[in-house]
Amino acid sequence: MAPRWKWKGAEAKALAEPIANSVSELQLSLAKTESSGSLSSCNVLLAVEPEQAELLDRCCFGRLVLSAEKGKKWIQLSFEEAFYLLYNLKCIKIYLQGRCLEKEVDTWMYMRSKRPKFPIFFKAYSHLRSKNWVLRSGLQFGVDFVVYRHHPSLVHSEYSVLVQSGDSNRLRAWSDVHCAVRLSGSVAKTLLTLHVSGNSNKEDLNLPLCLENYTVEEHTICRWSPELSREDEIMKP
Amino acid sequence: MAPRWKWKGAEAKALAEPIANSVSELQLSLAKTESSGSLSSCNVLLAVEPEQAELLDRCCFGRLVLSAEKGKKWIQLSFEEAFYLLYNLKCIKIYLQGRCLEKEVDTWMYMRSKRPKFPIFFKAYSHLRSKNWVLRSGLQFGVDFVVYRHHPSLVHSEYSVLVQSGDSNRLRAWSDVHCAVRLSGSVAKTLLTLHVSGNSNKEDLNLPLCLENYTVEEHTICRWSPELSREDEIMKP
């Protein structure tokens, strides 16, 4: 499926402003001000300057939290987004109840304790994000993430992503596969499954280094229609 | 959701010809001619007279198999449909490789051996069918059955049904629930789950009598929207 740009000129705008450039700019800016985020039970609140909030939005990290404070903006990040800024981009610090978590592993362990599947989900997130895909929650489409080629204001998401690991509950029954494929099709997305595997050793999970040992297998799943798949061009509708 | 009739006058036609009456007529007719069906690995081929084929269609049992034979029609029944005609309506006989299975339990065991979940699915099927709902495969909507108030030529299906038992794989993950609810909504159906439970004793599964001990719990699942659910009528859109 070709990308569906939202307006005329959106594609040109996307080409002129690659996400990778915005992310580099964001990385420099956040590192300079030593920006810090506070952990809560399922997300991270990041305090930033107004121009950094604008940069975060351009790169699609987090959501702006409305507040009356002047000169300071609050951004709510998912665990994946926050850990990506911390571990991959090294541009934020993380606080828990007012205390700075100096070591990345402390943040890692906290997030794992709140969400046992965090390592798997983070691997999937960082796998796509590091290739400059933009990820958002796929909650409303019954998947884990939706994936955009560029900012969601320019283009519709192209893939709906299910993250699979050895003990996943999804796509086990045929009816479940049908359901996911049909829903993805009806919202013009391609279903992408990311099978994350490796690290049977539980000890390794205690360090973000375990991410190095994970492998990600990508599969798109789509409906096969005999009529549309014939070799004979004339038979095509 | 109100039933969506397919054309003007369809509701009146449905009221004038209740499914229950057609089923009684079918039952009498098939019993009289001692109609017989042959088991194959996943369905049953039933040989009938042309007027019986028409009756089967009116009651929505099986699908006509195209054949050049004159004066005889072949109907392909699912295991659930065939066993319902055999066990609940007592109007057909079942053959396996040319030999009549005199006892219902032999057919039961054969179907169970081919599809371990058959008892659960048959309980769900017969539960709704005996209340004169019409059931069809829900394959294309990622569910087990779709359910019609009357013949599919008159009305759209109202419910998409997932059959659940203790060891079901569906609706375990939240994303799966979202997926099923959103897809059902987008095709104007209500998601209905039938939880079939009972018979922890494996021995009992060897007899169709175990059906008596099953209980079926019905739940519809739908999205809760705060805006649409306020008490204050004025606030409704």
From TrEMBL, chains A, B:
Enzyme class: lyase
EC number annotated for this UniProt entry: 4.6.1.16
SUPFAM superfamilies: tRNA-intron endonuclease catalytic domain-like (SSF53032)
Substrates-to-products reaction catalysed: pretRNA = a 3'-half-tRNA molecule with a 5'-OH end + a 5'-half-tRNA molecule with a 2',3'-cyclic phosphate end + an intron with a 2',3'-cyclic phosphate and a 5'-hydroxyl terminus
InterPro entries, per database record: tRNA_endonuc-like_dom_sf (IPR011856), tRNA_intron_Endo_cat-like_sf (IPR036167), tRNA_intron_Endonuc_cat-like (IPR006677), tRNA_intron_Endonuc_N (IPR006678), tRNA_splic (IPR006676)
GO cellular component, one term: nucleus
Gene3D superfamilies referenced in this protein's UniProt entry, alphabetically: 3.40.1350.10
Residues of the tRNA intron endonuclease catalytic domain: 122-200
Ranges that cross the membrane: none
UniProt GO molecular function: tRNA-intron lyase activity
Domain tRNA intron endonuclease N-terminal: 36-103
Pfam family, one: tRNA_int_endo_N
Family label: Belongs to the tRNA-intron endonuclease family.
Protein name listed in UniProt: tRNA-intron lyase
Species this chain originates from: Eruca vesicaria subsp. sativa
